């Protein structure tokens, strides 16, 4: 399936230096992955400049170079150069052209916000299935087409990878695809040229300031999904000021926006909520109609995710009955307040959760505390090579537990003890209520050794991850498996202990 330069760059302001009828057989943005016949996009990145790999790309058979400045390659007279003002945006549009705009052939739902994206995509997927649709999911836990699951490098893939994936979903005849749209993706134009049926915003709290530098820049990246470049039906949670700001800016007809939130001014809001250890009972007011139902997810923040999913369902044209039926049997989201299953637990409940931001940690902890008759112990750390400014704030947030064990998350190339020191610098107010154990397994074991029947342990930060990134190495590590093993080790000989079910 080749495309001429003319077809590839349709709709793009560019200068073609060479033959516009040249055929391109693929799109590449990493020189070492170029295949003969590809167009190579030279991207000015944060660490290096893709223009300096142009010769390498040609040596590997690239026929077209897309550049922001002409590279004048001496021995490459048969190579066409296409000059554009922004190679990332050009690549995204060319990728959409190359795969013939797959996102126009099904209903694509894009969800952005600091927390809640993965959870909401899973709820939307389930809802669409209950409505009889074929589904796809793209996000942090990976990609799913129907029931087939694959791992991916990014939450939101780079534009050529994304369009290729969307084309596969079209070929598999997906009707509804739910996709997480990260702030990096919006800033780096990974989704440019993609057509969304519905876009949704969950919330904005601190994360990724290493990349965006300011909160405002972080918001502006998210806000792009609600700008004229991405026309769609909208679902906006208005519980924070950023949701309200988005609502104010939205230039689409008012009846194409659904607002959600705890505030009664939201079109979807709760009038009654009861938080139980294994489920939640809600009565939602949905544009004046009331729906009472139970769903098998816990915690206050999941009420927001459920309302967001409800709004998305309405925007997709599903009936409220189908939406409620789906939510009543919502799936366990991997690693999101997931209760660890162990044959012996000594009456101690261990939850694994992906809280890796201050807000998520605060909310996950308050949800567990509210459900726990005894004490709550929190095991957590922070990722290396990521926003360091959130570390002391997460340290402070963890003091909402009765006791915290500070440990390693994914240290990546940083010194684990230096990350822990950053966290602990925010915990002065909790002297005596936390300790430090850099080895994550030992930290989980320590929390279990401290726990009494009726206590809960929150193991936060890594959720569904089945690995730990230490230096350049990827080690096998799954909080759920390790916690189950450590529970077994601690309580395995107490054969008469009751096992808490879920
Ligand atoms: C911060 C960030 O997102 N960086 C992305 C960015 O990297 P960059 O600008 O530094 O690129 P660069 O390394 O300078 O290279 C410039 C160009 O030269 C090319 N190159 C480079 C070396 C070479 O040998 N040959 C070559 O052609 C590169 O492919 C690139 O096109 O562009 C690269 C591809 O063009 C991405 O792979 C890279 O993602 C990095 C690996 C990353 O870790 N991103 C994470 C933080 C991310 O995107 N996370 C979000 C989720 C966040 C959330 O949870 O909310 C996600 O959506 O996954
Ligand atoms: N609506 C919400 N508000 C605040 N915190 C939430 C919300 N939903 C989930 N969380 C918390 O954030 C964590 C991550 O949730 P989820 O994976 O759904 O979010 P995400 O936006 O996909 O995150 P990421 O940016 O890492 O992909 C959960 O484990 C939970 O602790
Ligand atoms: N998508 C998030 C994941 C963080 C998960 C945490 N375990 C870490 O490694 O920091 C990020 O890239 O910031
Ligand atoms: Mg996610």
Describe the structure.
The protein is α/β, with parallel strands linked by helices and 502 residues long. It folds into three domains: 3-98, MurE/MurF, N-terminal domain (Udp-n-acetylmuramoylalanyl-d-glutamate--2,6- Diaminopimelate Ligase, Chain: A, domain 1, 3-Layer(aba) Sandwich); 102-328, Mur-like, catalytic domain (UDP-N-acetylmuramoyl-L-alanine:D-glutamate ligase, 3-Layer(aba) Sandwich), CATH 3.40.1190.10; 338-491, Mur ligase, C-terminal domain (Protein-Tyrosine Phosphatase, Chain A, Alpha-Beta Complex), CATH 3.90.190.20. An eight-stranded mixed β-sheet has the order 11-10-9-12-8-13-14-15, with helices on both faces. Strands 19-20-24-21-22-23 form a six-stranded mixed β-sheet, sandwiched between helices. A five-stranded mixed β-sheet has the order 2-7-6-5-4. α3 (87-98) packs parallel to α5 (159-171) and α15 (440-450) packs across α16. The model has no long low-confidence stretch (mean pLDDT 95). Ligand UAG is lined by residues 29-32, 43, 45-48, 50, 53, 154-156, 158, 182, 184-185, 188, 211.
Structural class: alpha/beta
Proper CATH architecture of the largest domain: 3-Layer(aba) Sandwich
Radius of gyration: 24 Å
Q: Can you tell me the CATH topology of the largest domain?
A: UDP-N-acetylmuramoyl-L-alanine:D-glutamate ligase
């Amino acid at each position: 399936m080749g495309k001429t330069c003319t077809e590839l760059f349709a709709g793009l302001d560019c200068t073609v230096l060479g033959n516009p009828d040249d055929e391109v057989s693929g799109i590449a943005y990493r020189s070492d992955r170029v295949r003969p016949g590809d167009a190579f996009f030279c991207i000015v990145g944060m660490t290096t400049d893709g223009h300096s790999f142009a010769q390498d790309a040609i040596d590997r058979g690239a026929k077209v170079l897309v550049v922001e400045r002409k590279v004048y390659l001496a021995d490459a007279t048969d190579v066409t150069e296409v000059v554009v003002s922004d190679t990332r945006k050009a690549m995204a549009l060319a990728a959409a052209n190359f795969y013939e705009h797959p996102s126009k052939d099904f209903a694509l739902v894009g969800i952005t916000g600091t927390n809640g994206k993965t959870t909401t995509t899973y709820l939307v997927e389930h809802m669409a299935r209950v409505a009889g649709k074929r589904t796809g999911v793209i996000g942090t836990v990976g990609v799913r087409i129907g029931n087939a699951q694959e791992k991916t490098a990014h939450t939101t893939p780079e534009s050529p990878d994304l369009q290729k994936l969307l084309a596969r979903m079209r070929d598999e005849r997906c009707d509804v695809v739910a996709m997480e749209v990260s702030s990096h993706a919006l800033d780096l134009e990974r989704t440019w040229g993609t057509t969304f049926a519905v876009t949704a915003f969950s919330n904005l709290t601190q994360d990724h300031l290493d990349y965006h530098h300011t909160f405002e820049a972080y918001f502006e990246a998210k806000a792009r999904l609600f700008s004229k470049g991405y026309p769609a039906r909208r679902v906006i949670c208005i519980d924070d000021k950023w949701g309200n700001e988005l609502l104010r800016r939205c230039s689409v007809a008012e009846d194409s926006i659904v607002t959600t939130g705890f505030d009664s001014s939201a079109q979807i809001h709760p009038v009654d909520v009861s938080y139980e250890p294994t489920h939640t009972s809600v009565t939602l007011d949905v544009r004046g109609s009331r729906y009472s139902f139970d769903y098998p997810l816990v915690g206050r923040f999941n009420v927001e995710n459920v309302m967001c999913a409800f709004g998305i369902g309405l925007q997709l044209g599903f009936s409220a009955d189908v939406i409620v039926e789906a939510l009543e049997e919502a799936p366990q989201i991997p690693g999101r307040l997931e209760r660890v299953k162990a044959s012996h637990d000594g009456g101690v409940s261990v939850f694994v959760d992906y809280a890796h931001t201050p807000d998520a940690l605060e909310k996950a902890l308050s949800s567990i505390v509210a459900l726990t008759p005894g004490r709550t112990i929190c095991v957590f750390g922070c990722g290396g090579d990521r926003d360091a400014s959130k570390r002391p704030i997460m340290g402070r947030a963890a003091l909402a537990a009765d006791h915290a064990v500070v440990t390693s998350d994914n240290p990546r190339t940083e010194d684990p003890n230096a990350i822990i020191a950053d966290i602990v610098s925010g915990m002065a107010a909790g002297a005596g209520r936390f300790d430090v154990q850099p080895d994550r397994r030992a930290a989980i074991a320590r929390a279990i050794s401290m726990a009494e029947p009726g206590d809960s342990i929150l193991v936060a930060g890594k959720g569904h991850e089945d690995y730990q990134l230490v230096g350049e190495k990827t080690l096998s590590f799954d909080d759920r498996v390790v916690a189950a093993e450590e529970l077994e080790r601690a309580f395995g000989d107490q054969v008469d202990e009751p096992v808490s079910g879920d």
